[in-house]
Amino acid sequence: MTGSVSATAAILIIYDIFGFSSQIFQGADILAYADEHRKFQVFVPDMFQAEPAALEWYPPEETGRSKELMEWFGRKASPEENAAKIIPLVNAITIRSEGVIHKWAALGMCWGGKIVALTSGIGTPFTVVSEVHPGLVDPADAARVVVPMCVLASKDEDAEEIKQFVQTLRVEKHVETFHDQIHGWMAARADLADTRVREEFRRGYQTVINFFFKYL
């Protein structure tokens, strides 16, 4: 967890298939401290229990590691099974805060975006959500979303899939494509030694938190 323990709003980050990374932790800090007057508690749960996918497997069509990736996905990354863990987790953290946390937002990255979509329907604990470089995009998920959503895409996602997804959303939304950034530029694949990537990394997180500010 990062951020102020007295903050009454919290953000749950659901990482991509590569699990914890220094880039995601930097992003969590940006969200937590973006505004000195409106701080957040930010949580990044270990959904894969210390068994994430290996970064060197990606992209599998180039690395030849598709078999390993698919075997791992079947063991650790079922969207439905992982989505079922989210509401109990959020409830547990809320109870542990002893009345401090009153509102929640969620940010999902790639695979995590799918989990966010699956947990943003009726009964969701989230007031507002975001998906960045989303994966496993399905308009049927968008049709069930009942809270405002920010969608940030990269140059690598299928533009038609993103278009169909956002057109199906029936909630307030912000949609933007970062046309010179790769899939994963806000997570483990971000090369923050590159000045342009670093700028767009920060702009991406700032875009998300500005959207969250409107509803939290």
What do these coordinates show?
A 7-stranded mixed β-sheet has the order 1-3-2-4-5-6-7. The longest helix is centred in the C-terminal third of the chain and has 19 residues, at 195-213. The chain is globular. The chain has helices spanning 22-33, 60-63, 66-76, 79-83, 86-96, 111-118, 139-144, 159-168, 195-213, and strands spanning 2-3, 9-14, 41-43, 103-109, 128-132, 149-154, 173-178. The model has no long low-confidence stretch (mean pLDDT 96). The protein has 216 residues and is α/β, with parallel strands linked by helices. The chain is built from 9 helices and 7 strands. The two termini are 19 Å apart. β2, α1 (22-33) and β3 (41-43) form a beta-alpha-beta unit.
Strand content is 15-25%
Termini separation comes to: 19 Å
Neighbour order of strands in the largest sheet: 1-3-2-4-5-6-7
What level of helicity do the residues show? 25-40%
Average pLDDT rating: 96
Write the SSE topology.
Layout: E1 2-3, E2 9-14, H1 22-33, E3 41-43, H2 60-63, H3 66-76, H4 79-83, H5 86-96, E4 103-109, H6 111-118, E5 128-132, H7 139-144, E6 149-154, H8 159-168, E7 173-178, H9 195-213
Parallel strand pairs: 2-3, 2-4, 4-5, 5-6, 6-7
Antiparallel strand pairs: 1-3
